[in-house]
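User: My advisor asked me to double-check a structure prediction for DgyrCDS9030 before group meeting. I don't want to rely on an old file, so could you generate it fresh from this sequence?
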Amino acid sequence: MEGMLPHSSLMALQDLLSPADDIDQDSEDEKPQTAASSMTPASIGNSKKIAGKAVERNNTTKDSNNKDIWDEEEIQPGAENIDYDDPRPEPEYEIIYKQAVTTEDVYLQMSNKSQATASCDQIVVRIKLPDSKISEIDLDVKKSFIDCRCPNYKLGLHLPQPVDHKSGKAEWNGKTSTLSITLKMIREYDFMNL
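Assistant: Sure, here is a fresh prediction for DgyrCDS9030 from the sequence you gave:
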């Protein structure tokens, strides 16, 4: 019995931790409430002003005569380029990350570059278009979407990272019928990988 609290000590501890209200504690569904459990993130700050601003913001963004199902912010960029009724198959493609590695990176390891894709600065998309000619290919590159069409195939590809679509390079390999598109990635924290 050594180390155990007497019954009176346990009851005193229960009275200390239980709420002041006269609530039946026999119910298993009810949990004891403490001051910390009643405090939420919404309890901090002035709730009246924030609620008023939120209502005003919602009223200004929605038109009463607007019958659109989605707002402009909810539509994924590049979704307007996907044609679901087009019977052409999607060609085989691969996405390769490319990194400019110098001797300083290999031998001295003085930069923040690693082997991870976060340190890569370019993305290469290789699209295999068998039985196609370069004159038949229509390529449109946007910040986060590639649209490649030819008579036999169509590809609508959402890119994993935003790219600089104005300074890309596309190469056609006639022997393998492969289109290689090299694009510079634009990421928010690229300055850390210099």
